[in-house]
Write a structure and sequence with these properties.
Helix content is 44%, strand content 12%. It is α+β, with helices and mostly antiparallel strands and 386 residues long. The protein is globular and about 65 Å long. The relative contact order is 0.19. α5 runs antiparallel to α6 and α6 runs antiparallel to α11. The strands form three sheets. Strands 1-2-3 form a three-stranded antiparallel beta sheet. It has a three-stranded antiparallel beta sheet with strand order 6-7-8. It has a two-stranded antiparallel sheet with strand order 4-5.
Amino acid sequence: MAKRMTTERIVGIGAGAKELATEDMILNIGPQHPSTHGVLRLRLTLDGERITAAEPIIGYMHRGAEKLFEVRDFRQIIVLANRHDWLSAFANELGVVLAVERMLGMEAPPRAVWARTLLAELNRVLNHLMFLGSYPLEVGAMTPIFYAFREREQLQRVMEEVSGGRMHYMFNRVGGLKEELPAGWTARTRRAIADVRAGMSDIADLILDNEIFRARTRGVGVLTREQILQYGVSGPIARASGVDFDLRRDEPYLAYGDLDVRVVTRTEGDCLARFECLLDQVYASLDLADACLDRLAELPPGPINQRLPKVLKIPEGHTYAWTENPLGINGYYLVSRGEKTPWRLKLRSASYNNVQVLSELLPGNLVADMIAILGSMFFVVGDIDK
């Protein structure tokens, strides 16, 4: 009698199961995620809990600012240019007016130069305080953001007093500043700087000695110096990976050539190093602001802007101006055909390069570490999409 042949398939269930094949999962983070200072989407490919591929998808906030520049005169483009990084509005204005002044062969009066430098450093501190407060919040620490906003408000008061704006200052003009500094403003600013310097220890004590924060950030999201250079990453992120470069010291503009600019660096390149760079940079910027106030007190009375014609036309030609913005290097390529509007104004924003390196940084990390890494990259999404 012939024996019947059978095929048996054993299926393991539970801990004893051995998977013959795995299937990757696609996970979309955003575009409404609250932890990215704007509307960013990340398309992650996961193998279990580990990220195998990451694609930053941008464009959800695109406003076509570069095209709008072409139909605005050289005064009007300032109001558009200060909005792409809403935490660094004064610094954004600077790049535009510096490029236009270079094309005109114009120099701003000394009082304007020193006042611009002072306001740029105050704006830098405001930017950094926002990230110093919001980053711990993203990894579970709620208290620091209240201390950060307490210090921000002291500087916001003096910035609002001098310019009339809290976020979009519109205080720069081609040839200088909008108007003279208010009477007694420098004394109030000096007190605000001293108060912020004293209050920074509260933020540092809350975070840097917190073992949970250090566990979530030390050795996590390491960016190498080579990756920084390949992707054009700049600012505190680059300096946290050992890239010792700062335009304020290495290619000075405004009054930075007459100041002792301390460049803060680290070598670890992880989330903790980026946070520490940002924290130390606040102290360095407060020192620069004090030095600017000292210099302003020594300057004799004089104008704070240049008189300009009602219709401002720029000679035909092109120029490139770059500045050390709070988030990194901003570049402005201005092309003129001798008209009252730019033929082309190309903006190189720091956040664009800072976010594109995520495609190389995130793979290999756990999903649980993604927010810790994302928050430490210090970008504003409007600065990407512009």
